[in-house]
């Protein structure tokens, strides 16, 4: 999301009541993510090594003390993924060439296309988390009226938005240079992302 949306969300977070670290731990389910590797389809580069990670039901959002978007936002922030936003997902194919992205579903359901038009359409619901490595094409296909996503980014990297095939040559070079995150946005420094992305990188 554009910087203005991140600033708007930051201001909101300053006045929110959010869960502490111990409460967050109790709300997170230690799930093994599904891994989906998308190849370059000629339009969307996707990532040459790292797969998309899909955590099903990763967060228990039934807390009566905190809104679901606050829980997910705080979880990502605690694990070192910041610059967050809260909204829906764009309904046109786009990808980020200089940064990885995580999206946690706070409310509702949706079908999100990942990997470009030749990729997969994933059905997600509240509590699910998607981790998209740099270069992964994504767009919203359809959603419930109450659909709400919390998005965030690791500390390293710069937000950008690629939609034009003319950008491909330079974008592919940038994607290959994006560093692996230091933490898993759901499970922190001991989360499976670190091993899964290292394992994929070693196969290339």
UniProtKB/TrEMBL annotation:
- Could you tell me which SUPFAM superfamilies the record lists for this protein? RmlC-like cupins
Stated name of the protein:
Cupin
Q: From which domain of life does this come?
A: Bacteria
Signal sequence span is none
Q: Which InterPro entries match?
A: RmlC-like_jellyroll, RmlC_Cupin_sf, UCP019307_cupin, YjiB-like
